[in-house]
């Protein structure tokens, strides 16, 4: 039945059936975790932080439930049920409003959506916060090219040698700073990457394998939809349903100033960084490439 806040409430049966093992108990446990998390976030925020007048005596620290409901534009009864761990359904839009009302940071927001079992519909192309340690490590690898990437192959940062070999990605719109997008659409990458066709098929297979764990997430789906709309070649390869895993491999590149480069791709996962960040290093596969990267560094005055 419909209740305040525009949500559907699951009616409680007159006689509750006994849970059939751990699987049946899991939703109850998650609802209780969600209730406790919301209470903890509510109690840490003062009325003044959200522009409310403190008023008279308050029996609980932080905000009252009715104040959170007011700030979120949802019904007081419905929000109370949510904090009580009731079996109610909630939309992404309502969770977004609650997260904003409770001044949640990105980590807390993500935790809220996971506990509620709801996919966050807000697409995000902004570069996430990268640790100084990860950035320092990436730059220390010079004169070898290196990037910091997430699981969707978005290039979050890169060092100077990477820009010299593959191009300066900061000149591109944020949504195009993605290895899969560039392999599919970039004329420069098509001409420079001697193994481009093989690399594209392999990367699409890896993206399909990785997406299995994120199939309903907006950022993954938006990336896929954009590529399907952009490229007939991508659509043909995607329909093959090939899958692949991460593995070291050597690829060849033609550089206009130092000639042939043979580079081995090596991945270093940056746990406990969020969103599966990894350092991708492009290591010389032979002495000739080692010397060529040294010459490239000299040409740039580094």
Task: Name the features.
single chain, five-stranded antiparallel sheet, two-stranded antiparallel ribbon, DNA binding, Lambda_DNA-bd_dom_sf, MLTR_LBD, DNA-binding protein, DNA-binding
* Estimated radius of gyration: 25 Å
Largest sheet: 5 strands, antiparallel
Q: Please estimate the helix content.
A: 40-55%
What is the average per-residue confidence, as pLDDT, rounded to a whole number? Answer: 84
* Sequence of secondary-structure elements: EEHHHHHHEEHHHHHHEEEH
Low-confidence stretches: 1-24
Order of the strands making up the biggest sheet: 4-3-7-6-5
Structural class of the helix and strand makeup?
alpha+beta
Task: Report how far apart the termini are.
Answer: 68 Å
Q: Please report the number of helical segments.
A: 13
